[in-house]
Specification:
Length: about 425
């Protein structure tokens, strides 16, 4: 239908959103002008305000208030689990107050396109309702002639009367809100309303899966209210957004006889963004960081931090275990070497008498082996163990045989016992 740009107003130095509509389609231009007319009269903190508009050859440009932060559709795409029930309940109250404001105007305004991608998460944790391109005063949706706004819809969130081209009213937004809350609470979009209607007519079974079978621990009042809002018959849905706010706030069973509906003047909607209730969850992700990295929700942000901390702890534990294993192996090897040398190694030769005794022992060993010679390897080992003085005293007797590669031993030569 067009494009939306983020810009900076050089006069006021603030961020704005500029929505451009292509002039090639007359119906789109008419819808854009209708949207500008509706936004010009709105004054609600969770609805965008129209700041300026101009029409050029390239299309119609609407300059609107810019809301920073991700949409709930973006948060759903980055999450592995659906949103917790208490958070969905807070968002439901915000949206119901917004719908009560829109439906309470004269004439009442029907949004016609409530879905997660049109709900923006504000820095204080509340949600704003965006994209009034399909919105329309209810007085213009009466009659046999269909409006251009009703020719576009999102199947998973649109009520059956909007898809089939029948008359829409406040109850149509209530169905779309129920479908949106169903998706936020379960992590999956509900079945198409037209498909549900056909299956109910054919076999009498609604393919809409109950919320308590998908997610456990959801408050019964919230689950029943969403299920009632998703009724295929408009007469079976809650009568107004104010009634749903009362039931969520006071935990009123929704299947009890209805009380007389109060007028919009008697019970004016209070924006949840200004209510200041203490149980609101504040988003911990600064809006300026959303352009630098992937958009995630508060719960997913905490889960990611916990996973990173767990990985760091696991890596540190692994390094400590490896270092401890190496230290233990080194200590065991050192002790084993020390014990083996003390148990089986020859005592060091410290005097000539000990060297002579060692030579006698070597002579006895050579007699047992019927050979008075040692190998060159044994000679090298002996040289490494004796002092320079002892080697110098026996150098005259060392004559290596080139034929056998052995060293004849004179009777008086002192060699250690190997």
């Amino acid at each position: 239908m067009g494009a939306v740009f983020e810009a900076i107003d050089l006069t006021s130095n603030r961020h704005v959103a500029i929505k451009q509509t292509s002039p090639s389609d007359a119906s789109l231009m008419a819808a854009a002008k209708r949207e500008a007319s509706l936004l010009r009269d709105l004054n609600y903190p969770q609805c965008p305000r129209l700041l300026d508009q101009c029409e050029e050859e390239t299309g119609l440009f609407l300059v609107m208030q810019f809301f920073s932060g991700p949409t709930l559709g973006q948060l759903l795409a980055t999450r592995k689990l659906p949103f917790p029930a208490h958070q969905v309940k807070l968002w439901a109250k915000d949206l119901l107050h917004t719908l009560a404001y829109l439906h309470g105007r004269n004439p009442a305004i029907v949004h016609h396109d409530i879905k997660p991608s049109n709900l923006k998460l504000l820095p204080d944790g509340s949600v704003a309702l965006l994209d009034f391109g399909l919105a329309q005063p209810i007085s213009q949706s009466k009659g046999d002639q269909l409006s251009d706004a009703l020719l576009a819809y999102t199947p998973s969130y649109a009520p059956p009367e909007q898809i089939t081209g029948e008359r829409t009213a406040e109850y149509s937004d209530i169905y779309a809100l129920g479908a949106t809350l169903y998706h936020l609470l379960t992590g999956r979009a509900p079945a198409d309303s037209l498909k549900r209607s056909r299956q109910v007519r054919s076999c009498g079974v609604d393919p809409l899966e109950p919320i308590d079978k998908i997610v456990r621990g959801v408050p019964q009042i919230l689950a029943q209210l969403i299920t009632k809002a998703l009724s295929l018959e408009p007469s079976q849905r809650p009568t107004s957004a104010l009634e749903m706010v009362e039931q969520l706030s006071a935990n009123i069973p929704i299947f009890t006889p209805r009380r007389p509906a109060q007028s919009a003047a008697a019970l004016s909607p209070k924006p949840a963004v200004l209510s200041g209730h203490r149980d609101r969850i504040t988003v911990e992700i600064p809006s300026c960081d959303l352009r630098q990295r992937q958009v995630i929700s508060l719960a997913a942000f905490r889960e990611e931090k916990e996973r990173e901390a767990a990985l760091r702890r696991k890596s540190a534990t692994t390094l400590v275990n490896i270092a401890s294993t190496i230290a233990i192996l080194f200590t065991v090897a050192s002790l084993t070497t020390f014990v083996f040398r003390n148990a089986y190694g020859p005592p060091p030769i410290t005097s000539r008498d000990e060297a002579y005794a060692a030579g006698k022992s070597l002579d006895a060993r050579a007699d047992q082996l019927n050979a008075r010679s040692i190998t060159i390897d044994e000679l090298i080992r002996w040289r490494s163990r004796t002092s320079k003085h002892e080697r110098r005293s026996t150098r005259n007797y060392a004559h290596t045989s080139t034929a056998t590669g052995t060293l004849p031993l004179p009777p008086a030569t002192a060699f250690p016992a190997f």
